[in-house]
Structures are given as C-alpha cells and as structure tokens.
Amino acid sequence: MDEKNMYVKCEEARIPEYCMPVCPLSTKISDYLAGKNIRLYTHQAKAFDLVSRGKNVIITTPTASGKTLAYSLPVMEKLMQIPNATALFIYPTKALTRDQLIFFTEIDSALHARTKPAIYDGDTQQELRPKIRANSRIILTNMYELHQILAWRAKWGDFWANLSVIVIDEAHRYRGVFGSNTALLLRRLRRVCNFYDAEPQFILSSATLGDAGSFAETLTGMPSVEISNDGSPRAKRTFRIYAPENKSSISAAAELVRSQINAGMQTLCFTRSRNAAEITAIRCREEKTLGKIASYRGGYRPGERKEIESALKTGNMAGVFSTNALEVGIDVGGLDSVVISGFPGSMISVLQQAGRAGRNGRDAVITFVAGQNPIDQFYARNPEAFFNAPREQAILGTENPYILSSHLLCAAAELPYKPERDRKYFGDIATEIISDLKNKHLVASTSKGFVYCGVENPTQTTPFFGINGKTWSVIFGRTTLETMDESQAYLEAYPGAIIFHQGERYRVEKTDPEHNIIRVVKSSDTYQTRPISTTEITINSREKTTRHNNLLVNYGEVTVSSQILGYSVIEYDQIIAANELTLPPREFTTKACWIIFDEECGIAPEKLPGSLHGAEHVLISAMPHYVLCDRSDIGGVSTPYHCDTVSPTIFIYDGVAGGIGLAEKAVELFPEIVCFAREIVSGCTCENGCPSCIHSPKCGNNNQPLDKLGTLTLLSYLERESGKPLSINNSDVNS
Ligand SMILES: [Zn+2]
Ligand SMILES: [Zn+2]
After folding, report:
1. Residue 561 pairs with which residues in a beta bridge?
2. What residues does 555 pair with on adjacent strands?
3. Fewer CB near the terminus (10 Å): N or C of the chain?
4. Bridge partners, 229 (sequence order)
5. How many whole angstroms from 682 Cα to the centroid of ligand 1?
6. Alpha-carbon gap, residue 624 to 627, rounded angstroms
7. pLDDT of residue 691
8. Separation of 636 CA from ligand 2 center, angstroms?
9. For the CA of 637, the nearest ligand
10. Distance 704 CA to ligand 2 centre (A)
C-alpha cells in the first residue's frame, strides 16, 4: 500500500466514567449489577434517572457503549414495580430481535421479574400467539409486525392498556420514507394506547445525529431529551484515510483486505453498493490461501446470512465484504479491522461501520479507502474535515399526503377517526384527507366518527417499504435469488441488465410486471450495464420562495417523468456498446426546490447547458453532507430553458412520490450546500471535470454535456449571491 497517500490519525484509548443514578435502584437491580460486576457508566445512570422521572429519551452514544443496558434497566425496574405493566421493544431486523431475546431472557430470570420476554413477529407460530399476548410483559417485534397487529386492537387490549414503555432500537434507521411511515405508525399506536388511557414513554437508541432531540420528537410525536455524553471506555483506534493512485478504489480495497488477512487480521470491508460487495469478494477470492471469504448484503436469504454472521463471530470467516447491511444490529463479535471502501453516504454510517472493529478492548484499525467521487475525494484532500464533519440531520416528514392517507385508512379501521380528537396525532392536513377518503367511499361517517368501509384489509394495501410497496423477486430457474423494491427493479433489472449475486453474474432475460418477477440466466460475460434515461419535470405549484441574501430558492410540487431509453455496456470502465430499450415511463408527483438563473450569472449561452448540468450534479453530491439521505433519494434536472420558468433552471427533487422533506430541508440549508459544492469543484485538480468533482455515476445522460469552469463560475455566483455562511473546515492539509 502506498504510504504517501495515507493520512493516519490515532485516537487514544479512553477510560470509563462511572456514576450512580440519583433515583434509587431496587435491591434486585443493585444485586444483579453487583453479581455481574457491572458499574454503570454516566450515560447509563442518566438514562435510568430520566426514564424513572417519566421523560422520553433518545440515547445517541456510540456502538458498543452499553446502550442495551442503558435502556433495559429502567424498563425492568418499571415492570417490577408495576405488576401488570408491559413493554414493547422494536428492532429493525429479525436477526437483531433474536439476538436481544437472549439478553432479556437472561436478565428476566436473574431478576425474577416475571416478564416472560417473547418475540412476536412474522415468524411466530400461530398457536403460540394467544399465549404470548396473554402472558408476556416484554414483547420484542419490528415495525412491520406492529403495523399488522394494531389491526387486532381488541385481542391486544390488555397489552396496550398496560403499555408503559416503547423502546425503539437503532432509531436513526427510521428516516426517509421508512421513517415517515414509522412516525405515522407510532402515532397510530399512541392513539390506540391513549384510547385505553395508557400514555407509554418512549426510549430511543440511535447513532449520533445532528439535532437528535427534534428527530425523536418528529418520529414519536413526543418531546424527548437527548443523552449523548458517552461514559464507556474505548480501545485505541487507528483511523487511516487512503487515496489510492492509479487504481480503482475497489481494487485497492480488495488488495488491502488481502494483505490484512495475510497478516492475521479478521477484516470486514464495507462497500458502497451491492455490486461492489460482490466484485471485491471475487477479487479477494482469487488468492486461494486466504481462507473463507464471503459477500453479504440485504436481499440474501435469511439462512445464508445467518451462516455468514456466525462464521464471522466464531472466527471461521477470514473476511467479509458487505453493504451497510452489516453496519448495525446483529452481534458478529469484535473484528480486528474494518475497511470502508467508499464513503457510505453519511458520517453516521462511517461511525457505525468503524464501531465494528476493536471491541473487547482490542486495538482497532479502520481504513477509509476514497473512491473516485466528489465527497470521497474531498475527504482525501481534507482529511481533517473527515473527522470534523457536521453530524447529519435525519429527515422524515409526517405530512406526505400519500403516506398519510394510507395510515389514516388503517387508523380508521383500528378505531373510529374523530377529527377534533385525532388531529393532535396526524395534524390539520389529516382532516382534509379524511374528507377526501370519504368522497372515495373508503371511510364512512358514523356517530362514533369516521370508520373504514373499504373492501380490502387496509394494512395489506398500505405500503411500508416505499410509496409503491411492491416487492420484485429475482428468479433463477426455480430459486429466488433475492428481492428488490420497485424503483430498484426499474433502474437495475431491465431486460439485458447484469445483476450480481454471491460472486455470480446473471443477465435479466425478461421481467413480468404482472407478478413482479425478474427472470435471470447465468452469464459468463465480463461486462456491466448502466441505464440511459431521460427525465422531465413540470412545476405543478410553487408553495414558497425563500430568500438567502440576493438568492431566491423556490419550493413546491412538481411532476417528474423518467424513462429508460436503453443501457450502456461497460467493460473495464469503458463504454463499449449502447443498446436501446422500449420501456414505459415512470411518473410521479413530488416536492422540489429550484433556482432560476438570468444573464447575471456570467455564463455564455453556449456554456450554459454544461455549467448547469455540472452544478446540478455537485449540488446533489453535496446534499448528503448535511441531510441524511442517499444521493439516490434525491434527483436533479437542469436545463438552459424550462417552459414553466422560461429561464435556465436547476431542480433538485425528492426521489419519492409526495416528497419526504429533503428538498424542503435543502431550501433552508442552501447557502451551506452551495459553499460545500463550490469547494468540491475548486479543490479538484482535474482539468475538464472528472468523477471526483462534476461527474455523476447516476447520470442518465452519460455525463454529457459538462463544463467544469462554467460549473465553478455558476457555483461561485450562487455562493456570492446567497451570502457566504460559516465555512466548513477546509484546512487543505495535503496541498
Ligand atoms: Zn475533477
Ligand atoms: Zn447528469
């Protein structure tokens, strides 16, 4: 490895800070802690006190800081004091739920708390269900299941009436569309509990977030206190930033993992995409003597994943290449080293991924391998900025009319909907939507309120995975290889597309939209494919215009229509062919912000298309730095003439029908985003634009036209007009 392109920062080990809660611990709990030789860290004691005093809290200390104990102790204390009290623990994955049940079974029997902890999810056998509902005071589940069981209000009446605490683990995962759905689901849950005169407290456990308190408040609808001061000890960590020269980040990461495994270090390598996880694993397996190497990602069958997880834990697996699927959750033990191949989209993810290394007090080595894209290269040039990056804000919206209307249908099926009582859960916009649903004959007005009167079970028709919640199956012969959501299927599984699975290449033969099936065959070709698409946007209404100094940023509703025209065939990063396809367009209504330009922006007309296009790409690259989203959650369109604005215009829109607040947040943070975007372009040493600055891997037009100088002029103009905000750390360490 090239040491000259390596930036190294060591974080010294840290000693623990202990503290006793102010609120008294029961003898049982004190004895339990003493018996296990546990002293509480400061954040655990604080959680105990705040929960005991009835506060809703969000705990944001790092991975492996003892968060489970922090939220379980006060809950166990409550359940021992109040004999009928119940608690609901919600985890993002079934695997994590299984893991946590072991903990609760153990602590319950040690405390003789008689809580009978049990899992209640899609895998729970029918004959066990009534018993669990009747006897278990601690139920572990997930959001999907909660969505289902709320419909059975009467069966669960006793549990809801006694529900005293709701614990949500890995709460930062509930953002974007999933977060918006979750927020409304939790409002439905609160409404049902309130009906039984219960007012459960919320305890959230989360990765470090910007403004975690207000995130918790949006998610749960209740004011929450943040606990962020970590009292746990930490092993020494060596953090390296590596910018490979003359080779791709994928080859560099594979090489690095190989050399670390050869040095006896069990290594987990996180990759940006599913394809990258597969390809790096293939490269690594070329060296036969390394021992077991696997790739891991969502979409794999549960048995397949479980096997990899336990092999990692027992040390039988030398290295694993994973998407962010292994970032959190299931315990795979402490690893010697973590390689982060490509910036995972947020600092939160970086910290979570890094947290996989060096548990149990062992020293940890974490290496970030910068890829050829704007954010990665920015960090490679400004490594200090990597360590001082702002904590992103997790965004979710509770007013998306599409999401809200399906949850209101569920709510009306669970309990008659009374506008005057229920607007405190769903907002004023709900009243409007309910009357719309009445006109569609989906709810009926009765003396008790609005009740659901549709034919189908509303929980079945409420999509929880996205607005259009259809899941597609990728089928090879008779085997289901994996599943995809609708937009992923549209973008990645068109006829002719190459899909990777466990190191094997498959080519899409045909798609069956009626049954949501993608049929694939094995492929021995060595190329990859990338869609060519076109996107058009129309403004439906302008809702507001925000002024930042001299710059006006518009915000409103738009309709986005995109169509895949064909795909490029790529071999060794070169486009070798382009094939046409005839596919129907995909159209959706969403929220967008847009900037309108005039002559004063200083760009000659012939340079305008390339400059606007470049600026659009970089603004989208810069967004995830401030707003917790993937760059695929947002889209952009730029044009030198737009028929609605009659001017050159750049649009940035939420990639989800109805919008979830991303473009809206961008309006607010626009000066910061522009400033960061300008720094990305001005800091890049290339001449005419490159993947590290203005190119976009997702560009539907094969990155044409692009004009780097024009982009820089345009962004500097925007920065000047919007008034320079406090600059982010730009210490130019390498220059
Ligand atoms: Zn460049
Ligand atoms: Zn583009």
Report:
1. 536, 587
2. 544, 593
3. C
4. none
5. 9
6. 5
7. 78
8. 8
9. 2
10. 7
Q: Which residues surround ligand 1, an ion (CB under 5 A)?
A: 684, 686, 690, 692-693
Q: Tell me what pLDDT residue 718 has.
A: 96
Contacts 24+ apart (CB under 8 A), 18-27: 18/42, 18/231, 19/45, 19/46, 19/231, 20/45, 21/45, 21/46, 21/48, 21/49, 21/52, 22/49, 23/48, 23/49, 23/52, 23/53, 25/77, 26/77, 26/80, 26/81
CA distance readout (Å), 363 to 1, 40, 150, 270, 339: 21, 23, 46, 19, 15
Closest CA to 494 of 472, 526, 461, 470: 472
On whether the CB atoms of residues 401 and 272 are closer than 8 A, the answer is: no
CA of 492 to the centre of ligand 1 (A): 27
Residue whose entry in the numeric block shows the structure tokens 């315990």: 331
The secondary element (H helix, E strand) that includes residue 499 is: strand 498-501
Contact criterion met (CB below 8 Å) for 443 and 437: yes
Question: Which ligand approaches the C-alpha of residue 694 most closely?
Answer: 1
Q: What is the CATH topology of the domain spanning 532-722?
A: Gyrase A; domain 2 (3.30.1360)
Question: Could you identify the residue written with the tokens 């922006």?
Answer: 601
**d(C-alpha 459, C-alpha 408), whole Å:** 11
Helix, strand, coil % in the chain, rounded to nearest 5: 40, 25, 35
**How far apart are the C-alpha atoms of 391 and 514, rounded to whole Å?**
43
Does domain 17-227 sit in CATH 3.40.190.10? no
Q: What is residue 333's predicted lDDT score, i.e. its pLDDT?
A: 74
* Under 8 Å between Cβ of 267 and 261: yes
Angle (nearest 5°) at CA 57 between 55 and 59? 150
Give me the pLDDT at residue 417, please: 96
Per-residue confidence (pLDDT) for residue 9, from 0 to 100: 93
- Which ligand gives the minimal distance to the CA of 621? 2
In Å, how far from its chain's centre is CA 137? 31
The rounded Å distance from CA 617 to ligand 2 centre is 6
Domain 237-393: top CATH class? alpha beta
> How wide is the angle at C-alpha 269 spanned by C-alphas 267 and 273, nearest 5°?
165
Element (H, E) at 202: strand 201-205
How far is the centre of ligand 1, averaged over its atoms, from the C-alpha of 635 (Å)?
21
48, 70, 177, 461, 727 from 101: Cα distances, Å = 21, 16, 28, 31, 47
Query: Model confidence over 68-95: pLDDT tens digits?
Result: 999 999 999 999 999 999 999 999 877 7
Say if residue 510 is exposed, middle or buried (CB neighbours under 10 Å; 0-12, 13-18, 19+). exposed
Report how far ligand 1's centroid is from the alpha carbon of 721 (Å). 24
Among the bound ligands, name the one nearest to the CA of residue 686.
1
Ligand 1 centre to CA of 495 (Å) is 33
Task: Give the ligand at the shortest distance from the Cα of 693.
Answer: 1
* H/E element, 634: strand 634-642
**What is the number of residues in the chain?**
735
Tell me, what's the pLDDT at 730?
41
CB 458 within 8 A of CB 409: yes
Residue 474 backbone dihedrals phi, psi, to 5 degrees: -95, 115
DSSP tally for the chain: helices H, then strands E = 24, 29
Of 268, 276, 270, residue with least CA distance to 309: 268
Tell me the chain's radius of gyration from C-alpha atoms.
26
Task: Kindly give, in sequence order, each residue whose CB lies less than 8 Å from that of residue 173, ignoring residues fewer than 6 positions away.
Answer: 92, 179, 328
Omega before 401 within 30 of 0, i.e. cis: no
For residue 560, the one-letter residue type is V
Which portions of the chain are predicted below pLDDT 70? Answer: 1-4, 328-329, 359-361, 462-470, 573, 629-632, 724-735
Residues 673, 722 contacting (CB under 8 angstroms): no
Q: What CA–CA distance (Å, rounded) separates 171 from 207?
A: 8
